[in-house]
Amino acid sequence: MADLLLREDAAGVATLTLNRPTARNALSLALLDALEEMLAALAVDRAVKAVVITGAGPGFCAGHDLRELTQARNDPDRGQAFFETTMARCAAVMQAVARFPKPTIAAVNGIATAAGCQLVASCDIAIADPHARFCTPGVNIGLFCATPAVAVSRAVPRRDALEMLYTGELYDAAYAARIGLVNRVVGEGEALHEARTLAVRIAERPASVVQGGKAAFLRQEGQKLHEAYADASRVMVEQLLAETSKEGIGAFLDKRAPAWPQD
User: What is the Cα–Cα distance from 245 to 239, expressed in whole angstroms?
Assistant: First the structure.
């Protein structure tokens, strides 16, 4: 299972590489298990400040493993139990990415379809290669990409999400950037480098501030306006009382680099 998902740590950043290149890194049940286990470990690893997710070979992630799903149709229940397990596991992994306590960045090096597009949308930030392509192709094979729709519809405007879902067509990286599915498109072969560079810059910020801020950001998304402001104000007060902001503000006023306290 370990070979399905590679991990490389450097400068406070963990890079996770989906490692099924011959299958365009399709999310088999074993790969989903490996991702879920790795995310749980990274969440409590104090040395890791940010996570980059990418794919081995020419593709980022081609979604669910259709061969594996098709094989399950031979089960006595026509695959129902396996389908339910797979969808539940995938939903758990996508929520783990979306709610991960540290910043997550997708380095989209190639095609990202169906659950692969869902994975991109679930990350906090996405950097794309110019050859990356994005698609929710379920309608082309008799399915509606209902689970990818959850993440995609939260990342892009409603009408753009529905166009992707209704047509099942491939969209290029420039289009993905225009609708906000990715933050930006970089030079050919540079997506991983740019994602890691950005992750390192983030990792250099105080972890308690970044992680506390992400938690507050996620909370306010589900709150009413007055609740969001009340919660955000409480967070600001807590951070103003902390030594980290005392040092940061003092360094700014003194025109010097901050010496951050240990998190």
Answer: 6
User: Residue 43 — left, alpha, or beta (φ > 0 → left; ψ -120 to 50 → alpha)?
Assistant: alpha
**221 burial level (CB within 10 Å; 0-12, 13-18, 19+):** exposed
Identity of residue 135: C
Q: Which two tokens stand for residue 112?
A: 């990202």
Rounded to two decimals, the pTM is 0.95
How far is Cα 252 from Cα 258, in angstroms, rounded to an integer? 8
At residue 1, the pLDDT reads: 45
Beta bridge partners of 108: 128
* DSSP class per residue in 212-245: HHHHHHHHHHTS-HHHHHHHHHHHHHHHHHSHHH
Exposure string for 60-99, b = 16+ CB within 10 A, e = fewer: bbbbbbeebbeebeeeeeebeebbeebeebbbebbebbbe
Q: Is the per-residue pLDDT at 2 higher than 90?
A: no
